[in-house]
Specification:
Layout lengths: L1 H14 L25 E4 L2 E4 L4 E9 L3 E4 L5 E4 L2 E2 L5 E7 L8 E9 L2 E10 L5 E3 L3 E4 L4 E9 L3 E4 L5 E4 L2 E2 L2 E9 L8 E9 L2 E9 L10 E7 L11 E3 L13 E2 L10 E4 L2 E8 L5 E3 L1 E4 L8 E8 L6 E9 L4 H4 L6 E6 L7 E7 L11 E6 L7 E8 L3 E6 L2 E7 H4 L12 E9 L1 H4 L11 E13 L1
Parallel strand pairs: 2-9, 11-18, 21-24
Antiparallel strand pairs: 1-3, 3-7, 4-6, 4-8, 5-7, 8-9, 10-12, 12-16, 13-15, 13-17, 14-16, 17-18, 19-35, 20-25, 22-23, 23-24, 23-35, 25-34, 26-31, 26-35, 27-28, 27-34, 28-29, 29-30, 31-32, 32-33
């Protein structure tokens, strides 16, 4: 009886020398069938404390039994998968970079005979960082507001040295925070820029806030006869008439033009001092966008037409600022006989190349005879530029930021209506098409949606 009790206690004592840890693993790799009364295993190091960066570490294992190694954390891989008794083996521990917002931990387990005989704890730190939703923000020249979102995994601050811009809140903590930007009216003759610095831990990022000027530069010999600075909202005023057209109505374009809300979203909205023409995919899978005309039944005969516009990016976009004649009798004076003035067009498949064109019966793109000119404009997509057209009885000249883009004269094109139909009132048009004969000539990328064309103002001057 005493001998039997002694053997039982000895067995329990030997089992007590094993290290048992519950964690993760692949049990298919465990060796089985070994009977060892006293399991001994040593590891080096006995734990890992790692930085957030990707790294490759070495774990040395030696045991008096055959063993396997495992860990089911998807950010850790182990090579080889085990070793044999009595022989030290080195395990390559590959750790992915920690892109999460928190530190993370895992256990590397040494197993034998279906049991965990040793575990090595691995912890990986994280980088304190904050990301703004935009690194570049444009604001209207009027007293105006805008916003951005800050996503952070720690305490953050925004440094702001400007005296015309208020940032609220200027500090915060972990998570997502909406930050309000409020600018006083810009009474200067030029735009002004505030450079904000977002800091979190050791990381920082810059946010550029540009406020445009509302100062009106009147061309010599002209007077301002009409403008919209888009400082009201949220809808356009009565001088504007929006189109409501199905997809494919013109130029095989893919968008549906609508002024009605789609799932609570508008294609045309006046917000923060800008007209936003929004193009997006609706819940029904259709693409929706906006097209709007200024006083289409009245228009203007001759003048200086100007708009400041920020173009969107993405393969499939086709924004335009252009003009068509008022009250056309389409049965006798249809397109292109009626004439068309394209002050600015751009397609996202050929980014930052802006063009101007004239279309008439004798000069149009169906004959490849249109009068056109294209220029490369760095930053056309994503920043504001001024597109304008001076139209007189005998000449049409378009400009980009004051630089001549296209010049055409009645004398050079011809004095008959088929060559020069620009002798009655035209009206301005703003639109953002998706796809179509030109916008989709390289295909479209729906992943670019939603996109927005921003218009700061439209101004029309005529000679005194």
């Amino acid at each position: 009886m005493r001998k039997s009790v002694l053997l039982t206690l000895t067995s329990l004592f030997c089992l007590g020398s094993m290290t048992i840890c519950v964690s993760c693993g692949d049990k298919d790799s465990e060796p089985a069938g070994q009977v060892v009364s006293d399991i001994r295993v040593s590891v080096s190091p006995d734990k890992f404390s790692l930085t957030p960066d990707a790294s490759v570490e070495t774990l040395t294992v030696e045991a008096n039994v055959d063993w396997a190694v495992r860990c089911n954390a998807d950010w850790i891989s182990l090579t080889p998968s085990g070793g044999v008794k009595g022989k030290p083996s080195q395990i390559r521990v590959s750790v992915k970079a920690n892109a999460t917002l928190d530190p993370r931990e895992a256990d590397i387990e040494i197993v034998s005979g279906g049991k965990v005989i040793k575990s090595v704890h691995l912890s990986q730190g994280y980088t304190m960082s904050a990301s703004p939703s935009s690194s570049s923000i444009a604001m209207s020249g009027a007293e105006s507001s805008s916003s951005l979102k800050v996503t952070a995994n720690g305490d953050w601050t925004i440094d702001n040295a400007s005296d015309w811009l208020t940032v609220t809140p200027a500090k915060g903590g972990k998570g997502e925070t909406e930050v309000s930007l409020k600018a006083t009216e810009n009474t200067t003759a030029s735009e002004r820029v505030a450079s904000l610095t977002l800091r979190c831990g050791e990381s920082s990022s810059e946010i550029k806030v540009t406020q445009l000027t509302d100062a009106i530069t009147i061309p010599e010999g002209y007077t301002l006869v009409w403008s919209d600075e888009f400082n009201g909202g949220p809808r356009l005023g009565s001088d504007w008439v929006a189109e409501n057209w199905p997809a494919g109505y013109v130029n095989n374009e893919l968008q549906t033009y609508t002024s009605n809300p789609v799932d609570g979203k508008y294609t045309l909205e006046v917000k923060d001092g800008f007209l936003n023409i929004n193009c997006f995919k609706g819940p029904d899978g259709k693409i929706y966008s906006g097209r709007v005309n200024a006083l289409p039944n009245k228009g203007w005969l001759y003048g200086y037409f100007e708009a400041r516009i920020l173009l969107p990016s993405g393969k499939g976009t086709w924004p335009a600022f252009w003009m068509m004649p008022c009250n056309v009798d389409w049965s006798t004076n249809g397109w292109p006989r009626c004439g068309e003035i394209d002050i600015m067009e751009e397609v996202g498949a050929n980014p930052n190349y802006v063009s101007s064109s004239l279309h008439t019966e004798n000069y149009n793109h169906t004959k490849n005879t249109q009068k056109t000119h294209e220029m490369y404009l760095p930053g056309a997509e994503g920043s504001f530029h001024i597109y304008s057209c001076e139209w007189t009885e005998d000449e049409i000249v378009t400009y980009v930021d004051g630089k001549v883009q296209l010049r055409a004269t009645r004398a050079s094109m011809g004095t008959d209506h088929a060559s020069w139909p620009f002798h009655y009132a035209f009206y301005p048009i703003l639109n953002l098409a998706w796809g179509g004969d030109w916008g989709g000539y390289k295909g479209v990328d729906d992943n670019a949606l939603p996109v927005t064309m921003k218009v700061d103002y439209v101004r029309i001057f005529q000679k005194k």
